[in-house]
Each structure stands twice: as C-alpha cells, then as structure tokens.
Amino acid sequence: DTGVSQDPRHKITKRGQNVTFRCDPISEHNRLYWYRQTLGQGPEFLTYFQNEAQLEKSRLLSDRFSAERPKGSFSTLEIQRTEQGDSAMYLCASSRDSPYGYTFGSGTRLTVV
Amino acid sequence: EDQVTQSPEALRLQEGESSSLNCSYTVSGLRGLFWYRQDPGKGPEFLFTLYSAGEEKEKERLKATLTKKESFLHITAPKPEDSATYLCAVQAQAGTALIFGKGTTLSVSS
Description:
The complex is a heterodimer. By secondary structure, chain A is mostly beta strands.
C-alpha cells in the first residue's frame, strides 16, 4: 500500500491552455473521488467513480472539465481552456465501499497565469 | 442544504495548553462525520470517523466526540507538531460526497 499518488505535484499554465492531471488510487480501493481546494477553504467535491463508472458530478464541474477512469484503475482530470479561477489544489482520494474514510493524495497545485 | 461550520478559524496555544475545536453541522441524515488533519501543501490525512451521537474516538493527544448537532476535537497537552489545519466533514445518508468545513488552523508554540 503506497497510498494515493498524484502527478504532477505542481503545474503552471497559461490561461487558455489545456491541462491533465493523473491519480493512482490505492490498488484495492474501488471508489475514486476528485476534489478541489482553494486557499482558506475546505475541499469541494467535483466527481466520483465506482470502478470505471462516473456516478456523480458536482455542479462545480463545468463542461471544460472532464474526468475518466479507464478500466477502473488510475484516473485523469482534464481542464480545457483554463481560466485564472481554475487555480487551486486538485485532490484525489480513494476508498473501499462506504462508510470508510477516504485516503487523499498530496494533490496537484495548479496555477493559471 | 447540508452544511458544516468550524470554529474558531484559527487557534494559538502554548505547548501543554489543552483546548477544543468545534464542528457544527446540518445534514439530511448523517452517515458519518470525519476529522482530517492537513499540513501546508499536502492532502488531508484521515483521523477519525464518528457515526452516531454519543460516540467518542481517541488517538494519542486527540479525542473526537459527536452529538446530534456538533462534534468536538479535544486536544490534550498539545505539542508543536500538532500544528496543522483540522478539517471536519460530513457524509449524508443519501450521498457519497464529503461536505467539508473551512477548517481550524491550530498553531502550538513551545
């Protein structure tokens, strides 16, 4: 059990560019979550996968955001046409079936300039 | 609307000075209440899950309690290494997402 891994740790991009983040969950965890956290705020839910199926999406997940989890393993989160308001820490978490607590990764910090 | 409010926003303690952090919540049927610790630049680290009023859990200098409206995280004789942001979150019966508060930033000086 090596924990939840996220890559990259930091990303600086110019406004309008596309970015993609990767998350590798704990291997035996079938549930995977993406959250976004801005400075001074708690994490906010973006989307949730059970195995390869995306079962829930927040209204925060605009049409510029897309997430995938092929074969129920790793997941990617892509942001198209980035805006300065997208600057945040993007956190991935995984869990077994509820009601177990999540295990979070260290996050990807995105800065849009 | 499901909501979590944490207080105080920031807390400064001297080493050994015990105190409590508060998490007030409103949720349509509580499945679980979670406490996490977050260090700067890192993801939240799981501490406790509480499921029903009256439940208590302990880990080293931390003790979490739960009532029908709020949870407390008691810190006994804190050390500088306890300095971090402590996040509270709830999960509703009907949902999968955790709803987080803004956190309490604890600073412990020696």
